[in-house]
TrEMBL record:
InterPro entries: B-phosphoglucomutase_hydrolase, Beta-PGM, HAD-like_sf, HAD-like_SPP, HAD-SF_hydro_IA, HAD_sf, PGP-like_dom2. Belongs to the HAD-like hydrolase superfamily. CbbY/CbbZ/Gph/YieH family. GO terms for molecular function: beta-phosphoglucomutase activity. It is an enzyme of class 5 (isomerase). Residues 50-77 form a coiled coil. The keyword NADP does not apply. This is Beta-phosphoglucomutase.
């Protein structure tokens, strides 16, 4: 495989913020009396904040207005941002830092492709604000995963054709986005366990070093 660039998802691939997302949605759901658990949470991986809320509200006992939904999404984001204050490089997932360092050593381009609007804050907190050759995130895009927009933007910022990129994802929505963008895709975490369509299913992110 002629891979010239790796595009990493952020939450659940580089850093354990996927659990912070869960905790913040759980707090909001409990307050609203809506049932929510880790199984439902797996459907929120990779999708935007409002699309995540719509999935949670499938179990609500009443309809919510657009204004109420906006307020709920903002409330969740406030809870989430409170947890980001305590985020440090210790929250990097096993193998993530070594993988980044080794890809740099091999002169493979690296990028972030994340649906999260909190990406800049997170990269700063974990000490990786300047680590990537390109960052494409929720602030740059109109359509979130499974649409390929964020990955195509990352590839274009790197100047590398999609077919020479490897995407690393923990979300099924992200796996589908990479495929739709014509990229190779390695699944880790939840998608590593369950994705039928990924080219590779891995336990840890550093296993990609054997693929390149
Ligand atoms: C993705 C997460 O990275 O970002 C999703 O996997 C989340 O769970 C999405 O909904 C949007 O994040 P944010 O930080 O913009 O609310
Ligand atoms: Mg993710």
């Amino acid at each position: 495989m002629a891979i010239k660039a790796v595009i990493f998802d952020l939450d659940g691939v580089i850093v354990s913020t996927d659990e912070f997302h869960y905790q913040a949605w759980k707090k909001m759901s409990d307050e609203e009396g809506i049932s929510f658990n880790h199984t439902i949470n797996n459907r929120l991986r990779g999708v935007s904040r409002m699309e995540s809320l719509n999935i949670i509200l499938e179990r609500a006992e009443r309809e919510y207005t657009a204004e109420e939904k906006q307020a709920l999404a903002e409330r969740k984001n406030e809870y989430y941002k409170q947890s980001l204050v305590n985020l440090t490089p210790d929250d990097l997932l096993p193998g993530a830092k070594d993988t980044i360092d080794e890809l740099k050593r091999r002169k493979v381009k690296i990028a972030i492709g994340s649906s999260s609007k909190n990406t800049p804050t997170i990269l700063k907190q974990i000490g990786l604000a300047d680590a990537f050759d390109a960052v494409a995130d929720g602030n740059d895009i109109t359509h979130s995963k499974p649409d390929p927009e964020v990955f195509l933007l990352a590839a274009s910022k790197l100047g590398i054709p999609p077919e020479e990129c490897l995407v690393v994802e923990d979300a099924e929505a992200g796996v589908q986005a990479a495929i739709a963008g014509g990229m190779n895709v390695a699944a880790v975490g939840d998608a590593g366990l369950h994705s039928q369509d990924a080219d590779y299913r891995l336990e840890r992110v550093d296993e990609i070093l054997d693929l390149i």
